[in-house]
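Lay summary. Proteins are chains of building blocks that fold into shapes, and those shapes determine what they do. In this project we predict the shape from the chain. Here is one chain we studied, written as its sequence of building blocks.
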Amino acid sequence: MSSNKKYWKSVEELNEDSATVKSLKDNEFVTEIPTDEFLGDEETLKSSSTTRRDFLKYVGFTTAAATLAACEGPVVKSIPYVIQPDEIVPGVPNYYASTIADGFDFANVLVKTREGRPIKIEKNDLAVNGGSVNARVHASVLSLYDKNRLPGPLLDGAGVSWAEFDTAVAQKMNEMSGKDMVLLTQTFASPSTSKLISEFTAKYPNVRHVVYDTVSSSAALDAFQNKYGMRALPDYDFSKADVIVSVGADFLGDWQGGSYSKGYAQGRMPKNGKMSRHIQFEANLSLTGAKADKRVLSTPSQQLQILKALTGGSTSGLPENIAEAVNAAKAQLRKAGGKALLVTNLPDVASQTMALDFNADSAAMDTDKPLLISQGSNAEVMNVVNGVISGSIKGLISVGVDPVYSLPNNVEFAEAYQNLEMSLAFGMKQDATASLAKMVAATPHYLESWGDAQFKKGSFSLMQPTIRPLFNTRQFQDCLLKWTGSSQKYYDYIKETWNSTILEGGSWNKALEAGVLASNAEVTMEAVNASAEGSATMEDSTSDAALSSLFEEGGYEMTLYTSTGLGDGQQANNPWLQEFPDPITRASWDNYLTVSQKDAKDLGLVNENVSNGALNGSYVNVTLGNVVLKNVPVIIQPGQAVGSVGLALGYGKTAAIQEEMQTGLNAYPLYQNFSNVQKVGIEKASGMHEFACVQLQSTMAGRSNDIIKDTTLEVFNSKDVKEWNAVPVVDYDHAPIEVRDKNADLWSPFDTSIGHHFNLSIDLNACTGCGACVIACHAENNVPVVGKDEVRKFRDMHWLRIDRYYSAGDTFQEEIEKYENLPAFDSYEAVENPNYETLEVAFQPVMCQHCNHAPCETVCPVAATSHGRQGQNHMAYNRCVGTRYCANNCPYKVRRFNWFLYNENDEFDYNMNNDLGRMVLNPDVVVRSRGVMEKCSLCIQMTQKTILDAKREGRPVKDGEFSTACVNACETGAMVFGDINDSEAEVLEKKEDDRMYYLLESVGTKPNVFYQMIVRNTNEA
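And here is the predicted shape, written in a compact code that computers can read:
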């Protein structure tokens, strides 16, 4: 039996008398159209004469939209090659294996280029330990075309040649001889760079190398180094764990590199009646907590007690409900034995050591080949900060980091930084640090660079340029070679390093082609060249200083985190990421303080939806010691632990950031002692903040009970499929029949047996809501960015959205029993117990469902949308006159209307409004003009290319060759695409699975997209 739960997107929906929700359900378009502005007054219209063509434009569903549609898109003539490069065939993409390692995101990627332009990032399937190709990595191709990038090197703010820059640096380095200098860098995870830095510091012995990770993993590194003698992070394979307990670790987010979603999803598939059990103790509602079987709200201070209790301590002092959950989790971990896994994100060495000790015999933890993607030391970075402020450090060279922006005491540091005798900043942009530096070296984007990496011991990868440098830039490594007197290029240096050690006799060209290589070569990686005396300093392993303030009286416990969109803030000037809705709050273009309902009530804080559904929220001031963050907007977040608050890092950048992207507030001043948990004071401030939040947009809530289907593992294993995944029924000849019965059809069916017929399967058990598919869709299909104001008006253009639903019901079995025993005149709402604490979460990717009985096709007056033989619902953009009948008739709310021209329009100054940004556009997909309706096409340009390639080669298409942008981006395998007329196709197997269901199947649209329902492991034994 399916759950019949009441799912809700927004807390506003829990208010049964909400006029806003009623209005949104009744009206497809909530904003009145200013027809007078476009068409003139009524008298003018009456006196005008129109042609038949104009008549079609004017008398559509909305005459204003039709008028916009009359404006033709701009015509740009193409210019052929004079001398065509041999390796470039116009119209045919080239793919290059490469690597991103920016100090926060590390991943092996494939780069798709067209006519020499990188236009899309995809994951490299050859990479077994390839990092996380997340939304930020997919969006990084757009950062290549950032118009705010540095055009060349600067000396005292003036542009100079590289020869002049080299002379000035050499002169300054000689002057600084004998004085304390620091080379402050990101974690490169690069064997050749580590070797090169060692050579540089050998030539200049007064320079010491210190690694600074903007978002620190120092406690975990210290714990691992104390126990295993190597500065690294343990790796985890969540597919090998039967019981997973996380204490504040968002391992499906950015925790320790965030590359665990694939293994986690494998263990969450109900195979042979089994799946892993996941218990999450956390304060903020995270991606990981949203997927947990059992989520227990707990503040950071309680999490420390929970971790101690799980590793052998007592539950004394914990609230009763938490103590019960801890004892149950403890029993399950004990029962799982070597297949148990305990992880934590508490920022102290003692806590990290507890987790390491507990997992010592776990099959899921790998310490022999650990992760090398983080190398920073809090103690050493603080030594540098204090040295700069005190004046003992005379020179600072920064690479890949922006300390003036990201250090906790950035104001004091910035003042001292300007007094340094030598300040040299390497960077792609004139960021906060480069703006104050005396010397600025312009560096290329990773897609313009050579490099290598070792993310995990024994797993090597190469970075190669996929385009010539767009600006007068030079790599940091090439600068070091120049300054150490070498005439080598960095490419030759890498090749020499690999040939002498890593390749072990293998082929350089083959390694470069694959992008990855497994090797047992031992190479030196970044080592913290710690203090001036040269000995590394680590925190005392018994210290819990980072958490001590949490036990003080008063205040709120804050958890600082990195958002799925912006991460640590490096790509703050990327409009794709700014407009990406947060998977949990569904808000974009902002960071905000998340608070619980109870705390909001105590503080007098409110969230309210205005007449068109847009969200507004109160402001607060956040105080931590002498630091005051003023006017922080508030979102009242279901699932937030009482007494705790959350705030995202990475926002509030202003230097080298376009005005439209200067969003949010810089939370790094609250990141004291590089601890992600703090005790803060909060007071309400005046005013209301306007959010660009899509949680009430395109809602299907209230349409049907088969939007989200879930069940428990126990029911899944013991009950008939008709009980837990029933097919909706309709009445036929006074008897119920399933909607899949041919007698339930009013349409004549299509013959789908000829040729290809495409279907897309989406497994809601495997979907983590990460949003990589959303950004990949943007890149592949030239989806425009519309900005905060337009998103707020429900005018976002995402072809693919990830709906997030809450369910605040009790346990599944209790809910069913209550439902079945309801009195005759009670509605289901009597069962529902809406609250902000005990809730379940479901993510659901929704795109055009490509219905075989498509409601949109029957209502288009100009046949702009039609059904293809291969099962795709087509859009003829040139034919569309913008009536929007199709959007009105679509039950899935997946069609997007171009209210304006988003291309080459100063009102929408994003990547499509400048020549550099438009270089990312995919030439296979037309850029739509205003007045046109658009939507998911199931990437028809990709499916057609696959068919044509196979036809040219005289062979049938193999299963797995057909794909779409979203499918290629999905790391968990939640999306499977293919031809159901291929009897061997994986998608056909998915279609015949018992968990399969259609979205709003009772409507009778016969979609070609289907879902696999959620199964939760609620077994406490």
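What the prediction tells us: The longest strand covers residues 677-690.
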